[in-house]
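quick one before i forget lol
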Amino acid sequence: MWRKYRRVVEILQAVMVTGLPFVAINGESALRFDIPTLKLHVFGSVIWMREFYLILAATLFVLLLTGFVTIIFGRLWCGWFCPQTVLLDLSESLAGVAEKKHRTTWQKVILIPLSALVSVTMIGYFIPPAETLKTLFVAPIVTAFFLVLWLLVYLELVFFGRGFCISICPYAMLQNLMFDKETLVIEYDVSRDATCMRCDACVQACPVGIDIKKGLSSACIACAECIDACRSMTAKRGMLPFPNYRGQVVRPKTFWLGGATAAAAIALAVLLWSRPPVDFLVIRNNASLPPGLNRYSFTLHNNGGKKLALELSSSDNGVILIGEHTLLLQPFSAIHGSILVKSNGKLEHLHLTVSGDGIAINRETGFL
């Protein structure tokens, strides 16, 4: 039966999606977008919004992965991994212990705490989980977001439910354009139609209410419920189920599209891990100052999870730095500052160095 395998996958998905914000790597969530600082924490690293090349590489990887999964595996995501499907399937399974006539009511009741958990999880992807739990019913803004998200998620699951998958979901509509004749789908074996028992068990089991016997449907989410329902009837007669997965997973397109996706993932990983531990930017201010005196603004970004003690200095002769030049840089943080630079002689270019904790970064800028 496909259902037991699907349940295992769904439980693993639920644990992973719910747990990611709560798993700490280098002192930060495994995956979280920090709104105040506009940075994305990704498995022990960080992507700043100013790093457009990394955002572009991540977007390219996601697009290629989506295309690969859709073209090769069809709507397997919808029926096995989609959070909407997982929540509805798990709530149906939990409600299955009740009498049949009360199962719908029980499912609606079970979805109340599940929707609350989803709401907390969604907030945890933007606010540190510890802070989320601490301020959930203390900070008015966090509380308001929690309650609104809770209500919206619950109403969507209860009133739209499976209908969202076949009428609103933009990914489902996109899939119709990406399928080819070898994409994995669930198909009814029309060559054996004469031996079908017409029990309609497949129709009754289908969560989106389609009749697989009438041919392929864009509403099918490839969940395999119809296969299991049919197998429960045909097994008694020693027959194979009439609907089944059809398609060619291993084919040339699998290798070149999968290879492109893997290459994008490797490129993104290399870009992330090959960045310097600290980014150092210096800009000369166009302020009116006496000759031989310039003001500079600087920004330091710590790309790692280690606290850094750094010193700002210059290797040029006759140069004096006026201002605070001993800097403490917290993990995954940025600091902005300014400093006055005085030269006792003629100087066209200024060389500034930030160093400490095994780091030495040099920058050259103009001097008037």
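fyi Residues 2-184+247-267 form one domain.
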